[in-house]
Amino acid sequence: MTHTRCLIIGSGPAGYTAGIYTGRADLKPLLYEGLQPGGQLTITTEIENFPGYPEGISGPDMMGDLRKQALRFGTEMRKGTIESIDLSHRPFIAVDDKGEQIEAETVIVATGASARWLGLESEKKYYGQGVSACATCDGYFYKNLDVAVVGGGDTACEEASYLATLCRRVYQIVRRDELRASKAMQHRVLNNPKIKVLWNSVTQEIIGDDMDGVVGVDIKNVKTGEITRLDVAGFFVAIGHQPNTAFLNGQLELDEAGYIIVKNPSSATSVEGVFAAGDVCDPNYRQACVAAGKGCVAGIDVERFLHNS
Q1: In the CATH scheme, what is the code of domain 2-114+241-308?
Q2: Would you name the residues annotated as active-site residues?
Q3: How far does the chain reach from its first CA to its final CA, in angstroms?
Q4: Architecture of domain 117-237
Q5: Which of 134, 202, 206, 224 counts the highest number of beta carbons within 10 A?
Q6: What is the pTM of this model?
C-alpha cells in the first residue's frame, strides 16, 4: 500500500496546479492523471485566452508545461485512474485501476466534467477542426463567419448569444418547438437579429474536409423529414456537461447536476480533508485559467488543513 499526504485525482489545469502548490509545500503529492493525461485541453488545437501566452499555445504544449512544473516540485505522476475511494474515515483508502491501494491523508478531486455529445462520427472526426463544446474558448476563431449551436437550454442560449457578438450569423438548432431556457435567456436569443432559431430540428451530419475542417451541417426537420444544409464554419455542441464523479459513489455532497459542492471561497467539500477543484465543481465558467486558480486554492487549503490537523 502506498501512503501519501495528498492524493490528487485528475490532471488538467486544476490537478497540475494543485500539484505545483502541494509540491512546493513539500507534501510530496501523488497525482493520478486519468485516462487522458492533461485533460480535455490536450485535444484542443490552440489556446489564446490563458494568461502568459501572448501568441497562443496548443493545448498539449500548455498541459506539458504545467505537468513539468508540477514534476519540478516533487509531484509524483501516475498513469491510470482511481476506480474507488473510501471517504468514511481518515486516512482515506483509494484503489486504482491496477488494484493497488493508496492511503491518503487528504484528497483533491480534479476529475473535470465531460461534454455531452450528439454521438455522431463526424462530431468526433472534426473535434478541434470546427466542432467545439465551448464558445468562450473557441468563438474568436469564427469572427465574422457563420456558425451553428445545437441545444435549447440556458447553456445553448448563452453560447449563441456570446457567438452573436463575434460571428456574422448564428443558427441555433432546437429539437422542439420551444426553448427550455429561462425566460430571460429566451428573450435574449429571440430578440437578437443575428441568431436564427431552427425549430423542430436535429443534426443529421456535420460536413467537412481534412483541409478546412467543418464547412457545413445537415439538419433534419423532425416533423417534415426535410433535410437542409447550412453553410457554417463552426459547430458548437451545447447540450450540457457531465461531471466525472461516479467513482465517488455518492460520498460527497453534489448539486442537482452532479457537481461537487464546495464551501466557497474555499475548496473544502462535505467531507473533512477532501477538497475539489476545476470543472468537477464548476458548472458556470469551465475555463482553464479558472480551473488553474481553483487548483491553487485547493493546494493552499490542503497545506493549511494538514498544518492545523
Answers
A1: 3.50.50.60
A2: 134, 137-138
A3: 23
A4: 3-Layer(bba) Sandwich (3.50)
A5: 206
A6: 0.81
C-alpha cell at 208: 467537412
Cα-based torsion angle of the residue sequence 203, 204, 206, 208 in order, rounded to the nearest 10 degrees:
-150
- Domain-by-domain residue ranges, the chain? 2-114+241-308, 117-237
Per-residue pLDDT of the chain (309 residues), as tens digits, is: 999 999 999 999 999 999 999 999 999 999 999 988 888 787 676 888 899 999 999 989 999 999 999 999 999 999 999 999 999 999 999 999 999 999 999 999 999 998 889 999 999 999 999 999 999 889 999 999 999 999 999 889 989 999 999 999 999 999 999 999 989 999 999 999 999 999 999 999 999 998 899 999 999 999 999 999 999 999 999 998 899 999 999 999 999 999 999 999 999 999 999 999 999 999 988 899 999 999 999 999 999 999 998
Cis peptide before 51 (omega within 30 of 0): no
Check residue 288 and report its DSSP letter: H
